[in-house]
Amino acid sequence: MQNTEIQTYLLQPSGVLPNHPVLPVLVYIRAFESSTDTIEAVFNRHRWLNSWKNGIFPYAHYHSNAHEVLGIASGEARLQIGGADGITLDVHAGDVLVLPAGTAHQCLRASEDFSVIGAYPDGMDYNIHKEEDGAIPGIQQEIAAVPLPATDPVFGEKGPLLNHWTSPAS
């Protein structure tokens, strides 16, 4: 994990997809040498829980009530982050994305062996809003009310997430 490159992207709203108004998306390149068990264990050790293993939906969606970490366990994919006005990322086994609440994401294409481990701070439950749901009244307030996580999902209590995600008052 010592050679992990960290990229940040602050995304603006894209049509009805809100994205987060203050917190950037973080992408950790080569955070893991890749192993489903290792990725999930590290996330869980750092209190990112309610984990699952699967792929990423092929349609734009977001979670308005929870932040999400996505660890690429195997394969590779092209993802759209932030909707049509956002960014396109090519991700590979070992990469990690930390998506603040409200960040739209979808899989545009993936290798046959593509799999992802997802988790949420302190095991928060998450909802799913699809782009086709349209604009949702009060959604920005709901997104802004999601508490900041206490730990970085990969690096723990002193991780880069804590430097990049700070409360507006700090």
UniProtKB/TrEMBL annotation:
Domain Cupin type-2: where?
Answer: 60-109
- Return the CDD domains for the record: cupin_YjlB-like
The residue stretches assigned to a coiled coil in this entry are none
According to the lineage, what is the superkingdom? Bacteria
Listed name of the protein? Cupin domain-containing protein
Highest classification ranks of the organism: Bacteria, Bacillati, Bacillota, Bacilli, Bacillales
